[in-house]
Design brief:
With 963 residues, this protein is of the alpha/beta class. Helix content is 62%, strand content 6%. It contains 48 helices and 10 strands. It has a 5-stranded parallel β-sheet with strand order 6-5-4-7-8. A 3-stranded antiparallel β-sheet has the order 1-2-3, with no helix packed on it. The chain has a two-stranded antiparallel sheet with strand order 9-10. The longest helix has 33 residues. The radius of gyration is 39 Å and the shape is flat. The structure holds S-adenosylmethionine (SAM). The site of S-adenosylmethionine has 24 residues, from strand 3, helix 43, strand 5 and helix 45. One of its GO terms (cellular component) is mitochondrial outer membrane.
Length: 963
């Protein structure tokens, strides 16, 4: 729940968080998910695609320090001391000790006792500093490693003193961040926090991105109440570790809250209470029906002027009259939106007493409440009720305060009381539902399920009782939009607009609904109308800004926020929006200025704490960027790609081509750019050699993300790139293959052809020696289609290459061919054909052998089908170069199109490539799409790997271009 709205619960629309775009800005601040905060300030990009965050995985990540250190020394072989080294030391004892060690380990080694066993025997602990220094570096490192391992053993046995000694000795041999960090762990466990910090500092001076040391130091800082330092360390650790350690993320969250709470408390103590922005107050006051100004007085403008001119002068007026005048002046100031003055006048009116004491106190209580002092406000509302028990409004206001306190029972009672007094007061129904709606939004759905439904009823009632209450319509429209199909909300807005065409609020919130539906142009129209009607309202500007930002126009978004801030510099919506927009562009420093403004204008402690948390998160990011510039670059790149900031990416690429990395989920910058539709960035990345065909851990290509999100141009661009690269590689591959052939002349599927095959008993499967599916029954409908294509009529000459299960051949037979030639290379398949009597069929001619070797036995055909197994695209291409010699002028050729069939994009690329290659030999290709669904696990049971994962088969039909 947004803290901002919790504290001004009655403000109708701003409350309606789920709906409001603005609310999303507020939620952004109120959101306690600090991981999100910090990631956002650092690197995270908000996107709908679910791909946001990638940091270095291509290069050694900081984590690897863990693996690198210590263990790498284990394999070091023993080096004999050179005579030069011994001579330099000049101390015999060193030499002798060291020689002893050497002899000792050589002896053990000679006995076949290696590794740890040897190392454990050696008494490194007994060496003096001078002796240590005399040792050759590798030997020292090895000794250090042994000592560290012993230290680890002691640590595991919780013998921390012994462990500290061993780590200290290890450090003496060879300082290493792990040793310091391990010793720090011992100090931490014995509550020597300052020593822990010192050791971690040493560890980090040797390896600044050593996550364990950062965490340890952070924990020690926390223990010694150095929260700011702890936060910086936890933040760095989280970013370096890609937020993978939940415990650290939780620690960062906790520290951030602690700091914000401490600071918030301090600030609140010194802070003078202040009213929210005038816009905010107006929205709040407007959510109650206006009372006529001249409730009790005739117009006495001259006297009011006097009071306004000489504010503290009491002379010449009796106290009651003065009180009345102040009260009236307050009403006027409210009309003029001069709320501070109105508040002051109300205070005076209450102090001097006036005829309308109940109203004056109630109104003063309202300002007290708006300042954030709910306890004092409650007192004023209660006093107003005491003075005028049939006064409905203070009941409603008291109810909303009770709701803020979570006291549902009392809240409900207050509304009930109000209804008893005046069942026809529309304010009651309206605010009751705003209040309970809020509660509903605060709670999990099952708690107050149905409240929203009740809300619509109350809004309706509120409108019935006062059909000129604009917020009633707005809220009703919103409730309908949430509960019913979107059109219901739209219709209510349209209906409301007929009545309230001049209401800026109506246009603004209707615009928000349209924006929520992504109907940008219509939304913009409504926002413009709202601005035209009420230039002093920052909300439509901010809405326009958010819409512009959604459409990647950050500059316009910033400009619009600036306008909103001109209108209301303290705006509790424009300031957060501006900071969010800046942060998402990586302008954290600039954003901080606006976050600080939010801190400055926050009126209540929870609100303040929420802003402070965000400010602290931003600061800790800036701190990280300063301390880890190399990582900061990467973070910038993430943000830049996500937000489409091409200039920053260009700059980064100029500095370092390898600055853009895939994350640990395999999501590459290209994936992100495609998902977000940044076509220029896609081109830039491709130009810089980013692989077009990278797949993430879900097996998805960047192009698929582009397609899913409707960026068809980008998809085409990648398709072209894929074809271009594959054609080049194809040429290169071909050359290599030719070279290879010259050398050994072996077929590409030699393994397959020389090893046994298995036919399933029911004849629906043919598997190779590794259980790869050579041919499977689910392909039958496809083979039927292929047969139909290559046999347009009876009595034709047909050629099929690759018998497999004989599915297509069985089908071809049905078209009564004049001749039916089958080439088959595998002996097992050939045997199977004979066993099945294919050689006895009068029109059938079997040619046993590889197609490559039997071309001279072929004639010309009306229909040709090609479907072999275990060959490469180069083989298919070679066949395509030969095939036109055997296809009659009017003939039709087709082939099994399993090219790239494990990924839709690769499939597309290969379909294009094959089409081009066929065109090279004078054939035009048409693909017809056939729906297939071999997704049933049963189909693939016992088969190694699914060779088909697509839902559509693109069946190729090739004919001579001239035909
Ligand atoms: C996928 S199956 C064909 C399935 C067939 N279309 C059907 O309807 O059952 C591939 C067949 O091609 C054969 N084959 C593989 N390489 C060959 C080659 N170079 N020449 C001829 N046949 C080959 C295999 O032995 C296998 O029988």
């Amino acid at each position: 729940m947004s803290n901002l709205s919790t504290n001004v619960s009655n403000q109708a629309i701003v409350e309606n968080k789920e709906f409001s775009v603005l609310q999303s800005v507020k939620e952004f601040f109120a959101n306690r998910d600090i991981k999100f905060y910090v990631a956002l300030t650092g690197a995270l990009a908000i996107s709908g695609a679910g791909l946001y965050y990638y940091t270095a995985s291509k290069s050694p990540r900081p984590k690897s320090s863990k693996k690198k250190k210590g263990k790498s020394q284990k394999g070091t072989t023993r080096t004999n001391v050179s005579s030069a080294e011994t001579a330099q030391t000049g101390t015999t004892s060193v030499l002798s000790t060291y020689q002893n060690l050497t002899v000792q380990s050589s002896y053990l080694a000679a006995k076949g006792i290696r590794g740890k066993a040897i190392e454990e025997e050696i008494q490194y602990e007994i060496l003096s500093q001078a002796e240590i220094e005399a040792m050759p570096p590798e030997q020292r490192a090895k000794a250090a490693q042994v000592l560290k391992d012993r230290g680890n053993d002691a640590y595991r046995q919780r013998n921390y003193d012994k462990a500290v000694k061993l780590y200290t000795q290890a450090i003496a041999f060879h300082p290493n961040p792990v040793f310091y960090s391990n010793r720090a762990a011992c100090y931490f466990n014995t509550e020597q926090f300052y020593k822990t910090i010192e050791d971690c500092k040493k560890a980090l001076s040797l390896d600044p991105s050593y996550v364990k040391a950062l965490n340890r130091r952070a924990a020690a800082y926390e223990q010694t109440n150095q929260f700011q330092e702890a936060l910086y360390d936890y933040t760095a650790s989280c970013i370096l570790d890609n937020f993978s350690n939940e415990a650290t993320v939780a620690s960062m969250d906790r520290t951030l809250k602690t700091i914000a709470e401490i600071k918030g408390r301090e600030l609140m103590q010194d802070r003078k209470k202040r009213l929210p922005s005038s816009r905010f107050i107006k929205a709040y006051l407007d959510s109650y029906r206006n009372e006529p100004l001249q409730e009790f007085f005739s117009n006495r403008d001259d006297e009011i002027a006097e009071i306004n001119g000489e504010k503290d002068s009491q002379s010449g007026l009796n106290s009651e009259e003065n009180g009345d005048l102040y009260y009236k002046s307050a009403r006027q100031k409210i009309q003029e939106l001069d709320y501070s003055e109105a508040f002051r006048a109300l205070d005076k009116a209450v102090e001097l007493e006036c005829t309308n004491m109940a109203q004056a106190i109630e109104m003063r209580g309202t300002f007290v409440y708006l300042e954030g002092d709910t306890e004092r406000a409650l007192k004023d509302f209660s006093k107003a009720i005491e003075l005028k028990p049939d006064f409905v409004r203070p009941y409603i206001k008291r109810a909303s305060i009770y709701m803020e306190k979570g006291n549902i029972q009392e809240t409900w009672q207050e509304f009930e009381e109000a209804i008893k007094i005046n069942p026809n007061d529309p304010d009651i129904y309206y605010h009751r539902q705003v209040t309970f709606c809020k509660r509903y939004l605060q709670c999990t759905l099952h708690f107050l399920t149905g409240e929203l439904q009740k809300a619509t009823e109350d809004y309706r009632k509120s409108i019935e009782l006062d059909s000129y209450f604009v917020f009633g319509y707005i809220q009703l429209a919103i409730a309908k939009y949430k509960l019913e199909p979107p059109e219901a909300g739209i219709d209510t807005f349209k209906e409301g607009l007929q009545k309230f065409d001049k209401s800026a609020d109506m246009h603004n919130y209707y615009g928000e609904l349209l924006l929520d539906l992504q109907r940008f142009d219509e939304a913009m129209e409504q926002f413009d109308k709202a601005i035209e009607l009420q230039k002093s309202n920052p909300l439509p500007y901010v809405n326009k800004a958010l819409a512009a930002f959604q459409r990647q126009d950050a500059a316009q978004a910033e400009e619009l926020c600036r306008k909103a801030l001109e209108v209301d510099p303290d705006s509790d919506v424009a300031n957060p929006a501006m900071s969010q927009i800046l942060i998402q562009q990586g302008k954290t420093e600039a954003a901080l200025k606006y976050i600080e403004k939010c801190v400055e204008v926050a009126r209540t402690e929870p609100e303040l704490v929420a802003h402070l948390q965000f400010a602290e998160a931003a600061r800790s990011h800036l701190n990280f960027a300063r301390n880890y510039p190399q990582f900061a670059d990467r973070l910038t790149s993430i943000r830049a790609i996500s937000s489409g900031d091409i200039q920053s990416i260009k700059k980064l690429l100029e500095q370092d081509e390898n600055v853009l990395y895939s994350d640990e989920n395999g999501i590459s910058p290209l994936h992100v750019a495609c998902a977000k539709g940044h076509s220029e960035i896609v081109s830039l990345l491709l130009e810089h050699g980013h692989p077009w065909n990278a797949i993430d851990d879900n097996g998805k290509t960047a192009a698929e993300y582009a397609k899913e999100n409707g960026y068809n141009e980008i998809y085409q661009r990648l398709l072209e790139e894929g074809c271009r690269v594959e054609l080049i590689l194809g040429l290169l591959g071909r050359k290599n293959q030719e070279e290879e052939k010259k050398n050994d002349g072996k077929p590409s599927n030699e393994n397959f052809l020389t090893r046994p095959l298995k036919y399933s008993e029911d004849g629906t499967r043919l598997l190779d020696y590794e259980n790869n599916g050579v041919m499977m029954g689910w392909e039958k409908p496809l083979m039927e289609k292929h047969a139909q294509i290559i046999c347009p009529r009876e009595n034709l000459d047909i050629l099929n290459i690759g018998f497999g299960l004989g599915l297509i051949d069985t089908e071809i037979q049905k078209y009564k061919p004049r001749t039916h030639t089958i080439i088959e290379a595998h002996p097992d398949v050939y045997k199977h054909m004979i066993a099945e009597g294919w050689h006895l069929k009068p029109d059938v001619k079997i040619i046993f052998g590889r197609w490559q070797d039997v071309l001279d036995q072929l004639e010309t055909y009306d229909g040709i089908f090609f479907d072999t197994f275990g060959e490469f695209y180069q083989d298919l291409r070679e066949f395509h170069e030969e095939m036109p010699n055997f296809l009659k002028n009017e003939g039709i050729y087709s082939f099994f199109n399993g090219l790239g069939a494990t990924n839709p994009f690769f499939h597309d690329v290969y379909c294009q490539i094959v089409e081009m290659h066929l065109a090279d030999v004078g054939l035009k290709t048409k693909f017809i799409e056939v729906k297939i669904d071999p997704s049933d696990d049963e189909i693939w049971n016992g088969v190694k790997g699914r060779y088909w994962t697509l839902d559509t088969y693109r069946l190729p039909i090739c004919e001579f271009m001239t035909s």
